[in-house]
């Protein structure tokens, strides 16, 4: 007898994290598992994978997906006892996922009907338990369906039905399975899933406690999480050298450090001040001369950020890449690392006088003060960019700007304040003032820089943390509180992020065309 090739008999079953390529199969699986319930939409699953990919699992058997589950992390104490599935998942998008939370919350499990009885659900539940142990979470919480309750609702209350199942007098395919997997009933929530007719809209809130959980002293309830910002309303005036420009910049960073600032924010294209000694009158040529100082500009601010221990929003600077000129704002972190954001929307003036080219990627940056975004001047006037940045986790949007008249300034200011309200986010605008008589197209400036908040009782009365006097060289220093922002998003007088009608409209951003010009 010849040697048997065992590989021909193998059928591999693996549990792994969900991937983008699984989405179409998940749609088909959902139709088979929940034929009478409203299915996921692609944007729901994409949001899960973007916000918490580690919490999404599938079971793959011989190359086909036969099971899946979705989860997010929450601080369960912040939710009402009678919360619904929509409440705990932000209507399926899990934008309320809290990496600093204490509980893993399971929001869906699916097992292909043809493969039930093969411990698929158990494998998925074990994956969740392992994740809770890995992340040192207190517990796994689920809102479980009771799909056989409709057969007994005329003679049993939900509580009585649950007791009968716990006593093994009634079999329920979901509740019985959850009890067998170590979950205990916490309470029964009405109207949990409005389209779950088999459960008469009820759900059992159940919990598995992680006995390996170790309390961490660094995880505690925060009464505040202040971030101090210094905005520089920079005076544009004629100078004689880059060294003179550098001394002015260092002066302001030094002041920011003296005030204990976490961020120092410079205005848009304030490096055009260097044009005052370049002796080039043709604007299209002068920007290319200016771009020759890019490396010196980057080296200077990298040094200042580390030396003074301040994160610096380096205004913006004209940079030549691949023979094109871009308007780029740099983030210089105080740990010495650097990020950059290209201006997305180019004004007619920039296009006509300097030939500026647009970028096409909205970035959100991690800092030691949370996630931030930078939107240069004109970009803040397009609400989609701010919405996208906040959906990616931004808590502060910095807006370096440069305007030559009051109308242009007010467009920036009004839109920055609108974005703060629409997205429950802090916005910061920093502009240039003064005159440069020797520089074509940069001769006059108008600005009143400031720090803005959402409009609610938790914040300053007029939604203004602080602002400079108009058209004078000055700074404004103010604190924004990320903990107050977090609470206001959950329980404010209005909750724009939560109450957005995703069933009627949504934002689609083409993130696949990532802009990758030559690195400087």
TrEMBL record:
For this protein, what is the EC number?
A: 2.3.1.-
Coiled-coil positions:
none
PROSITE patterns documented for this protein: CN_HYDROLASE, GNAT, UPF0012
Q: Does the keyword Nucleotide-binding apply?
A: no
Q: Which Pfam families match?
A: Acetyltransf_1, CN_hydrolase
Give the residue range of the signal peptide: none
A GO MF label: acyltransferase activity
Record keyword ATP-binding present:
no
- For the N-acetyltransferase domain, which residue ranges apply? 13-211
* Record keywords, A-Z: Acyltransferase, Transferase
Which residue range or ranges hold the CN hydrolase domain?
Answer: 227-482
Question: Top enzyme class of this protein?
Answer: transferase
Family to which this protein belongs: Belongs to the carbon-nitrogen hydrolase superfamily. NIT1/NIT2 family.
This chain's protein is named GNAT family N-acetyltransferase
According to its UniProt entry, this protein's organism is Halobacillus campisalis
């Amino acid at each position: 007898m010849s040697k048997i090739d065992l590989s021909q008999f193998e059928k591999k079953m693996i549990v792994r994290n969900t991937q983008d390529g699984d989405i179409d199969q998940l749609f088909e699986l959902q139709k088979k598992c929940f034929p009478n319930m409203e299915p996921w939409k692609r944007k729901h699953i994409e949001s899960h994978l973007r916000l918490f990919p580690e919490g999404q699992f599938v079971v793959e058997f011989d190359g086909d997906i036969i099971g899946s589950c979705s989860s997010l992390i929450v601080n369960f104490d912040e939710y009402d006892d009678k919360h619904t599935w929509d409440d705990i998942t932000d209507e399926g998008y899990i934008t309320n996922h809290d990496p600093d939370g204490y509980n893993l919350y399971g929001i869906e499990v699916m097992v292909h009907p043809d493969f039930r009885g093969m411990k698929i659900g158990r494998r998925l539940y074990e994956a969740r338990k392992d994740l809770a142990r890995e992340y040192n979470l207190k517990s796994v919480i689920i809102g479980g369906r009771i799909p056989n309750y409709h057969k007994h609702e005329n003679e049993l209350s939900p509580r009585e039905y649950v007791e009968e199942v716990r006593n093994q007098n009634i079999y329920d395919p979901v509740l019985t399975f959850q009890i067998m997997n170590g979950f205990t009933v916490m309470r029964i929530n009405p109207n949990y899933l409005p389209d779950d007719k088999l459960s008469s809209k009820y759900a059992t809130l159940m919990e598995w406690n992680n006995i390996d959980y170790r309390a961490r002293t660094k995880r505690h309830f925060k009464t505040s999480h202040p971030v101090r910002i210094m905005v520089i309303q920079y005076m544009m005036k004629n100078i004689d050298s880059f060294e003179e420009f550098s001394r002015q910049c260092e002066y302001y960073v030094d002041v920011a450090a003296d005030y204990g600032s976490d961020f120092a924010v410079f205005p848009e294209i304030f490096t055009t001040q260097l044009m005052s000694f370049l002796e080039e009158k043709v604007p299209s040529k002068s920007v290319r001369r200016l771009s020759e100082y890019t490396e010196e500009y980057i080296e200077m601010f990298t040094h200042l950020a580390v030396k003074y221990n301040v994160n610096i929003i380096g205004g913006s600077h004209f940079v030549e890449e691949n023979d094109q000129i871009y308007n780029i704002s740099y983030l210089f972190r105080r740990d010495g690392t650097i990020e950059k954001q290209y201006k997305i929307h180019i004004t007619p003036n920039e296009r006509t006088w300097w030939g500026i080219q647009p970028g096409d990627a909205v970035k959100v940056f991690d800092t030691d003060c949370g996630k931030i975004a930078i939107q240069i001047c004109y970009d803040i006037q397009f609400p989609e960019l701010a919405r996208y940045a906040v959906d990616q986790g931004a808590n502060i949007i910095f807006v370096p700007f440069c305007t030559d008249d009051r109308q242009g300034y007010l467009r920036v200011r009004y839109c920055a304040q609108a974005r703060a309200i629409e997205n429950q986010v802090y916005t910061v605008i920093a502009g240039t003032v003064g005159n440069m008589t020797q520089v074509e197209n940069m001769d006059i400036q108008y600005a009143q820089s400031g720090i803005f908040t959402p409009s609610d009782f938790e914040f300053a009365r007029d939604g203004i943390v602080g602002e400079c006097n108009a058209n004078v060289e000055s700074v404004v220093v103010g604190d924004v509180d990320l903990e107050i922002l977090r609470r206001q998003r959950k329980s404010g007088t209005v909750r724009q992020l939560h109450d957005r009608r995703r069933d009627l409209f949504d934002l689609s951003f083409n993130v696949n065309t990532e802009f990758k010009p030559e690195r400087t």
